[in-house]
TrEMBL record:
It comes from Belnapia arida. The chain crosses the membrane at residues 44-60, 72-93, 99-122, 134-153, 159-178, 211-231, 243-263, 275-293, 299-318, 330-353, 359-379. Its main location: membrane. Keywords: Cell membrane, Membrane, Transmembrane, Transmembrane helix. Residues 6-386 form the Major facilitator superfamily (MFS) profile domain. Pfam families: MFS_1. It comes from the Bacteria. This is MFS transporter. It is a multi-pass membrane protein. The keyword Nucleotide-binding does not apply. It is found in: Cell membrane.
Amino acid sequence: MPPAIPIALLALAGFTTGSGMRMLDPLLPAIARAFEVNVSQASAVVAGFVLPYGLVQLVAGPLGDRLGKVRIACLAVLLFGLGLVASGFATALPGLIALRAWSGFFAGAVIPLLMAHIADAVPYAERQVAISRFLTGMVMAQLIAGPACGMVAEAAGWRLPFLLLGGMALAVGGLLAWRLGPALWRRPEENGGGRGMRAYLELLGKPSGRWLAGLAFFDGFLLFGGAFPFIGSFLIEQFGRNAAEAGLIVAGFGLGAFAYTRMARPLLARFGERGLLTLGGVAVAIALGLLALTDRWEAVAGLQVVLGLAFYMFHGVLQTRATEALPEARGTAVGAFALALFLGQSAGSLAFGLGMAVIGYRGAFAVAGGGALALAFAARANSVRR
């Protein structure tokens, strides 16, 4: 077991990698102008980050189980930071895309491994609360990374956000290395890591493992990749909001998610895991249904806060369950959950993007709401079996 590391430092590592994902939201037009391409062509830098971020789960989990979860996460944060700093000096778009792929690959290893480390260190009864505190970093990245990078870029150009965030990642990685001390270079005793990639087969060989992977996939399909990414466009096209206003309204989701990180303990004590699965899933379904019906943007703003809180009530239980799906190889189990979520998100973005042309925003939100309701009861059924 590595030395005790404050959850605040682990959350800061999550903040840096989460910011690395969201930082490009306001920077694409400036990058397109700098390299004399259109925004559609410049958007390849987004895909360049996201695909490696998801696929690295295949190797990061088994590697963390074998060589030490915090150890691998620490090295990943440092290499992620180097990629960001180098991105600030890119002279051509293909080079920037390659550096974003490098950054995405190492960023993707950080949060699942640190979550698995927390699960190793914290008893199950306290685990969801500890993970919620850790997720504060990721939630704050969703809230402030885009606006902060936009303001910096407006004042000093698109390269400076890469340099500043890269420097922050290197500093956080350095702090993690310092806290690890000699453990950074010392391979831990094996405790399930010897399974390697076979741990995935072992996980999927268990009914509970297959259920969890399926729930994560449809969680990503219906919500992360399905309904949520299109709310900003809905505000612009249906309510005439501009991009900045839509961004501020959508940020309400982060406020709701932050509220969850502060309220996780009393919510868990009051409702228990099964109650949170049901209450969170049903609340997401109702909020999406109201989103499909509303004719006021102010209502959309309020519903965003509700969606953030309700989603993390539901999703937080699934994440915590993932840490216990294969206790002897937690890095692999959490990585498998993250990979299933990513695959669902990718498929959902494509499916809902195509579906919008047929049923429109409101129809898509209604479909996602119905799916979320079914998902909530499927998750509850799985909870009863467990």
